[in-house]
Amino acid sequence: MSELILEAVNLEYSYPDGTKALRKVNLQVEKRREVSYSGLKRGW
Amino acid sequence: MKKGEKLAILGSNGAGKSTLFMQFNGIFRPNSGSIKYQGHDISYKNKALIELRKKVGIVFQDPDSQLFSASVWQDISFGPLNLGLSEEVVTERVKQALIDTETTDLEDKPTHLLSYGQKKRVSIAGVLAMGPEVIIFDEPTAGLDPRHSQEFMQLLEKLSILGKTIILSTHDVDLAYSWSDRLVIMSSGEIIAHGEPGELFLRPKIVERADLALPWLIEMHIELVQKGWLPPSTPLPKTREDLFRTIPVKNDLAG
After folding, report:
1. CA angle B2, B4, B9 (to 5 degrees)
2. Which residues on chain B place their C-beta less than 8 Å from a C-beta of chain A?
3. Domain ranges in chain B?
C-alpha cells in the first residue's frame, strides 16, 4: 500500500512583480511504492 | 519490497520547478490552492513550518546558499541542534549523515575550502541530519563532472532504499528517464504531462512543447528498431546495459 505524503492542490502562484509562476498545479507524491522485480529479464 | 518513490520533475529553465519546490516546504505561500502534507493543509505558523521542514528537506542547486558554518561538522549539526535535539542524538545524526554522504574525512574542514562536489555532499548531509521523510533536490547534478554525477546517483539510490521519498528537478532528460519511477513535465508554470517515463517520452508533442529532447537511450532504441536491428516488440531500455544487451552480436545475424 502506498500513502500520499505530499500534495499540491490547484496551486496558483505569482511573484510579487506579477509574473505568473504556477498555474493550477496538481501533484500527488507517494510515500512508498511497492516495487516488483518479477518483470525484469535477467541472465542474458 | 518497499522503496521510497522516485519522482523527477522535468522542464526547461523558468518552467516553475524551483517555485513549486519552495511551495512544498512553505518558503512561498500559494495565491490560491494548497499544499498538503500527509493529507492536511500545511500551516504557515512558525512552529508548524519548522516541523514541516524537518519532514520535507530541500537541497538547493547552489551549495554555497546552504553552507554557512565554519566547519563541516558545525554546518551539519546546525539544523538538528536547532530542532532542540540532545547533543547525543545530534552527534549520532551528524555521524550517520557524514557516513551516508562519504564526507567523514571532511568533518573538521572549513566549508569554504571544499571543492564544489564536496560542498554539494555536505549540503546533502545537512539535510539528511534533519531526518526528513521527503528530500527534494533542485538540479542536483548541474555543475558536477560525470564521475561526481554518477556518485551522486548512487547516493540517491541508497536514500530511496532507506525508504526516503525523493523528488528531483532537472533538465537532464537522460537522468530523469533512467532514474525516475514517475515523471512530471512542466512548462510555463503548468504540469503538461505526468506518468510513466518511457510512455511520456514517446509523445513527441509533449517533448517539443516542453523544450526538451529525447533521452539518448530512447533515440537509439527507436533508430535500431526502424533500421531492423531490433524487433519492434523489444521493450524500451531503461539503462545502457538494457540497451546493449538487446543488440545482437554480428555472428548471430550472419548465421
Report:
1. 145
2. 1-5, 7, 16, 19-20, 23-24, 28, 30-39, 56, 133-134, 163, 165, 167, 181, 184, 188-191, 194, 245
3. 6-196
Q: What is the ipTM of this complex?
A: 0.83
Q: What is the DSSP letter of B43?
A: P
The pLDDT mean for chain B works out to 92
Q: What is the β-pairing status of strands B190-195 and B182-187?
A: antiparallel
CA-nearest of B149, B141, B124 to B72 is B124
Is the pLDDT assigned to residue A35 strictly greater than 80?
Answer: no
Nearest chain B residue to A18 by CA: give it: B31
Asked if A10 is an interface residue toward chain B (Cβ–Cβ < 8 A), one would say yes
Confidence of residue A39 (pLDDT cuts 50, 70, 90): very low
H/E element, B74: helix B72-82
The Cβ of residue B134 has, within 10 Å, a number of other Cβ atoms equal to 22
- What pLDDT shows up at residue B144? 86
Q: Which residue numbers in chain B have pLDDT < 50?
A: 255
Query: How far apart, in whole angstroms, are the C-alpha atoms of residue B38 and residue B22?
Result: 17
Q: Compute the nearest-CA separation of A16 from chain B (Å).
A: 11
In terms of phi and psi (left: phi > 0; alpha: psi -120 to 50; beta: otherwise), the region of B84 is left
Extract the C-alpha cell encoding B132: 526528513
- The CATH architecture one would assign to domain B6-196 is 3-Layer(aba) Sandwich (3.40)
Q: Are B71 and B107 in contact (CB under 8 A)?
A: yes
